[in-house]
Amino acid sequence: MHSLKNRFSAICFFTLICMACLSLFNWGTAVIQRKPIDADFSLNKMSKFGVHPYLNEDFAQFKFNLQSDLTGVFDWNTYDLFAFLTVEYESNDGRKTEVTVWDDIILRKNTKQHKIDYKNMQVEYLLSDKNKELRGKTVQVYFNVDHMPVVGFTQKQRVHVGNFTLPEEYLASYSAKRY
Amino acid sequence: MEAVKGTISEIAGMKMRKLLLQIVSFIMIVVSALMIWKSCMVLTFCESPIVVVLSGSMEPSFARGDILFLTNFDQDYTPGDIVVYTQGSYEIPIVHRLITVQEIEKDGEAYLLTKGDNNNVDDRGLYDNNLTYLNKKHILGKIRAVAPYVGILTILLNDYPYLKYTVIGGMLIMVLVAKDPQS
Amino acid sequence: MEEFLQTQYRKIDEIDFEGQKKVDFLFRTILITATVIAAIIGYVLQDMTIATYIVLGAAGIAFLVTGFAWSPYKSHQLKFLDPISDDK
Q1: B181 interfaces chain A, CB cutoff of 8 Å
Q2: Which residues in chain B are closer than 8 Å to A23, comparing Cβ atoms?
Q3: Does the structure show a pLDDT above 60 at B71?
Q4: In this complex, do A154 and B146 lie within 8 Å of one another by their Cβ atoms?
Q5: How far apart are the first and last CA of chain C?
Q6: Which first-to-last residue range defines the signal peptide (chain A) (predicted)?
């Protein structure tokens, strides 16, 4: 501690240790108080269901309603929440498929966005199946939330919000030109 | 005359020993850092357990300069996991989120599709020409934790290469020229 | 010019052993109390930014108070013995 450089480097590294302890406290107090999420979902209308002209897969697009109150889920460790809706089903021989159909980033700063209330929202991504087994399949819908922390571990939460069955036959045939 | 030559050779010999001691201490520091890195690799089953976020494709959750901690012992992927993958001709590992997982065999190989949070479209444009989905073998690891701003030094060194050369040159000079506290 | 810089640097550089003890104790207390205060304030206000700024501000204060060799750290100078003449 005799020289200037010694003192400066000692202070720098001690500050680093203090910041690490503060980060641990931040993450620790937040993770033990995480509240579970809840949501309401309903299918509004199946808008497209057929064979994708480029990918050669089944695909479906639909409109849905979603309500959820996420105000209690934010704390001082959450930087933003990545909320997404997944559709999960099993193929005829037991293989799982999980597809994200809609996602959104909810920042902690935008308090108006904390209550989600979507009516007749179009899905952002296609529900598609490589093996073309979607006709007549009952799929489960889950609402998931990924906590993106300020510092610390990320954490996913999910809740089952409903299910629906796809139509037995394709709604239309989609050619490359029309699509 | 003999005594003078004797002392000169003694002093020269001591300086050589000191120089060798400095070099060996320097090598020991480098090797112990390498040991810590390799043990991290073994513990996490992952080739590079700590990465720095270089692009802005995962904003606002991960900004440039954050460091991410990866593990690879859990090969069970679900949508929403943030993975680091490399594929084909693009050598830099990419940090994006999984949006679709479709198993090819039960608990085995799977088709995976990724997309960056800040991008509008999925990553099919980044994959090689005949690839519509990724496989588990492309994935280096899953992101578990983040520490903000710790990697800013790496970003600065990457963006300004002269800074990198000055820092490394300065460190080398300090190691060789620094006064040995035991002398 | 060289001599002038050297003497000025030595003025802010060297402290004695009692000063070292004081400096050690001081910067550790400053940073630890600042961390505890920052943790409590951050938890109550649920804001990590304020907590970080408190800790970094305390680090700056520690730099100013203990980094340079102020006179309280130099008050117990070592007493060297008088030089004795060589036998030869």
Answers
A1: no
A2: 147
A3: yes
A4: yes
A5: 39
A6: none
Of residues A69, A70, A72, A66, the one with CA closest to residue A85? A66
- Residue C87 to residue A81: CA distance in whole angstroms: 82
Chain A CB within 8 Å of residue C51 CB: yes
Interface probe with A: pick from C24, C48, C54, C76, most Cβ of A within 10 Å: C48
Is residue B57 annotated as part of the catalytic site, yes or no?
A: yes
Asked about B55 being catalytic, the answer comes back as no
The bridge status of strand A78-90 relative to strand A39-51 is unpaired
> Active site includes B138?
no
Residues of C in contact with A75 (CB under 8 A): 46
> What ipTM goes with this model?
0.85
Set B9, B57, B107, B117: catalytic member: B57
For A55, other C-beta atoms within 10 Å of its C-beta total 14
Nearest partner of B84 among B118, B119, B123, judged by Cα: B123
Distance, in Å, from the CA atom of A85 to the CA atom of A67, rounded to the nearest integer, reads: 12
Cα A148 off chain centre by? 11
Which residues neighbour B53 within 8 Å (Cβ) at sequence distance 6 or greater? B62, B63, B64, B65, B66, B67, B68, B95, B151
For the segment(s) B50-152, the CATH number from 2.10.109.10, 1.10.10.350, 3.40.50.2000, 1.10.3720.10 is: 2.10.109.10
Task: Please tell me which of the candidates C9, C31, C68 has its beta carbon nearest to residue A18.
Answer: C31
- For residue A178, count CB atoms less than 10 angstroms from its CB and return exposed for 0-12, middle for 13-18, buried for 19 or more: exposed
Name every chain C residue with its beta carbon within 8 A of the beta carbon of A31: none
B110-115 and A138-149 strand pairing: unpaired
Per residue in A40-51, pLDDT (tens digit) is 888 888 888 888
Q: What's the predicted TM-score (pTM) here?
A: 0.81
Query: Which of A15, A16, A71, A108 would you mutate first to test chain C, the one with the most C CBs within 10 A?
Result: A15
> What pLDDT shows up at residue B183?
43
Q: What is the spatial distance between Cα A14 and Cα C20, in angstroms, rounded to a whole number?
A: 16
Q: Which of B9, B66, B74, B123 is catalytic?
A: B123
Most C CBs within 10 A among A12, A16, A25, A79, hence the mutation to make, goes to: A25
| Residue B143 contacts residue B69 (beta carbons within 8 Å) | yes
pLDDT, tens digit, 9 for 90 and up, residues C59-71: 999 999 888 888 8
Distance CA C36, CA B55 (A): 35
Q: Which of C15, C28, C56 sits opposite A14 (nearest CB)?
A: C28
